[in-house]
Amino acid sequence: MQLYNTLSAKEREALIEEAGQERLTISFYKYARIGNPSIFRNHLFIHWNELDVLGRIYVAHEGINAQLSVPAENFGAFKAHLDSISFLENVRLNIAIEQDNKSFLKLKVKVRRKIVADGLNDETFDVTNKGVHVDAEKFNELIEDSDTILVDMRNHYESEIGHFKNAITPDVDTFRDSLDIIEKDLAAHKEDKKLVMYCTGGIRCEKASAYYKHKGFKNVYQLEGGIIEYTRQVQNRNLENKFLGKNFVFDHRRGERITNDVIANCHQCGQACDTHVNCANEACHLLFIQCEDCAKAMNNCCSVECKEIHELPYEEQKKLRKGKVVSNKIFKKGRSEVLKYKK
Ligand SMILES: [Zn+2]
Ligand SMILES: [Zn+2]
Description:
Layout: H1 9-19, E1 23-31, H2 37-50, E2 54-60, E3 63-71, H3 75-83, E4 94-95, E5 107-111, E6 132-134, H4 136-144, E7 148-152, H5 156-159, E8 162-164, H6 175-185, E9 194-198, H7 203-214, E10 219-223, H8 226-236, E11 243-248, E12 255-257, E13 276-278, E14 287-289, H9 292-297, H10 304-310, H11 314-321
Parallel strand pairs: 2-5, 6-10, 7-9, 9-10
Antiparallel strand pairs: 1-3, 1-4, 2-3, 8-11, 11-12, 13-14
The site of one zinc ion has 7 residues, from α9.
Enzyme class: oxidoreductase
Keywords: Oxidoreductase, Transferase, tRNA processing
Protein name: tRNA uridine(34) hydroxylase
């Protein structure tokens, strides 16, 4: 029984190209009690691997959080399999606006302690006492209300390339940091203002809204399905789109264009640009915003130092990396001394 990937990303990429079939990029999450996440994990891997599903999925006792790429022709079978799992029947699937056949190149189903690394101790508050879920239409109404404080629950590198007009966008590296900062900044308005929040697909607001209610906020609202579902509803129902720029996504696409506004700047030269790249020096891999001019001049690197390393023969690079810890972790996202135009 195959429970793990047998193909490398490169081999997979070649296969996808050869097959030439259309794939759908999908995400969904569900908080539910899962007794044995390991067994559930294996069950998913076996069935989804058969359907040629790729992606990154986290399974925990508290539920499932999945980002996937599914062959369009297998979508029916995939949906039928989801519906066969009691707590996933009719779960809302966020389907990406811009399709990319290579959004994911492996199927990784991981058992974690939590489905979002939120840094919260769930035993200390009632996670089921959530905010009011609102759809795009109600959300548009709410954010025009002068009693509303609109908060972006995502991290700095996400809101930097796109966010709702007039939203507070905390300059934070982690979800946990934003929770504290927002609570402190809005402490005087726990009762008189409406706290309206949003994130990429809605999952972060599920916990954040409950946390803020626990902290004494009286009027808490959350955008159901996040920016992804908002965009779909705005298109289908012909509503005004109050989002600006790109929605940051956690796959190879990195961002999904929602409107033509470019609200960010190249971190190297400062010109208008909202394209995220990873530094080509594998030992660095910093996620940052780079324009085409700088990409050319810097050979896709974040700094002169990285450029020099990147241009060495591969064997030399490997020697240099020896003994060093490569960290693609959160702090390597868009913050570095070498980036002149990143605040
Ligand atoms: Zn530039
Ligand atoms: Zn670099």
